[in-house]
Amino acid sequence: MNNDKKIAGIYIRVSTEDQAREGFSLPEQEKRLRAMCEYKGYEIYKLYKDAGISAKTGNLRPAFEELLQDIRDKKCNTIVVLKLDRLTRSVFDLEGIMRFLEENDAYLDCANEEINTTNSSGKLVARMLTTVSQNEIERTSERTKFGLAGAIKDGHIPARAPLGYKHENKKLVPDPLTKDIVLRIYDLYFEGKSYYNIATIFNEEKVLGRTNWKDTGILRIIANEVYKGDYVHGKRTKHPTYYKDVVEPIISKEMWENCQVQKKKNQKNYKRTQTYIFLQKLRCPKCGRILAGGASHKIKSDKWYFYYRCENCKNNIHEDKIEDKIKVLLADILEYDNVVNEFFLPVLKSKIDNPKEQLEKELKSLNNKRDRIRKAYIDELFTEEEFKQESKLIESQIEMISSKLLENSQAEQLSFTTEDILLKRDMDFINKVKLPISYYAFNDNWDLLDRDIRADIVMRYIDDIELELKNNKYEVKQINFRSTFYSDFEELYKKGYIDRKRPLTYDINGVCVDTNIRYSEYLPIKDVMQHLYRLNEYYEVNLYKGIYYKETEKLDIGPLQRNEVPIRVFPLQNNNNGDKNWLSMGMLATKNNPNDIKVNIRDVFETIPDNVTEEDFILSDDNVSQEQR
Question: Which residues belong to the active site?
Answer without folding.
Answer: 15
